[in-house]
Design a protein that fits this description.
The protein is mainly beta and 172 residues long. It has two helices and eight strands. It has a domain of 89 residues: Immunoglobulin-like, CATH 2.60.40.2220. The strands form two sheets. The protein has a five-stranded antiparallel β-sheet with strand order 2-3-8-5-6, with no helix packed on it. It has a three-stranded antiparallel β-sheet with strand order 1-4-7, with no helix packed on it. The chain starts with 7 loop residues before the first helix and ends with a strand.
């Protein structure tokens, strides 16, 4: 697939650029690869579940063998462990998606980013099996704006299509 000249090239009065030619940073004329899939399903996109299939295609699960990794204490990791469990009441499975779990930019804490995928409000229970010192709501730049009470499970309410980002402050 090749990029086409951006329409702005025809709207900008610049005598140094021929009409229809690439104009500045608006165009990427390199070769591009894209992946697509056809997902036959019964019902609508929520019943499908089209969103889960799309996430699986675009961001495949990454894993490491438990025997090759060690916990902070130096002990080998168990072959089975769930640090985070997401539960919803009576809603369609997959309504809340774990978009990311990563270390913070400063490397001290962990970021958990969740989104509501079906356009319906949801109440969610998160069970976090990590030694927590605190939980904060943060923006996409990881700046804290609300401290949450630490409880197991941690209860969150989602509006339709809402994205929530949490900072998990771990005991050291």
């Amino acid at each position: 697939m090749r990029g086409e000249p951006h329409p702005a090239a025809r709207r900008v009065a610049d005598k140094t650029v021929p009409a229809g030619a690439a104009h500045g940073p608006y165009n990427d004329p390199r070769e591009h690869n894209c992946t697509y899939a056809v997902w036959p399903q019964a019902g609508d996109v929520v019943d499908g579940p089209v969103d889960r299939a799309g996430h699986a295609l675009n961001t495949p699960l990454q894993w490491v063998a438990a025997g090759s990794q060690r916990a902070r204490s130096g002990a080998p990791l168990s072959s089975q462990r769930s640090w985070l469990q997401i539960e919803t009441d009576g809603q369609v499975p997959g309504q809340i998606i774990l978009e990311a779990m990563k270390q913070t930019e400063d490397g001290k804490d962990w970021i958990v980013r969740l989104s509501e995928a079906h356009g319906c409000a949801a109440s969610v229970r998160l069970t976090i099996d990590l030694p927590l010192k605190g939980v904060e709501r943060v923006d996409l730049m990881e700046r804290s704006f609300e401290t949450l009470a630490i409880g197991q499970p941690l209860c969150l309410d989602f509006d339709p299509f809402q994205l929530q980002t949490l900072r998990l402050v771990l005991e050291t």
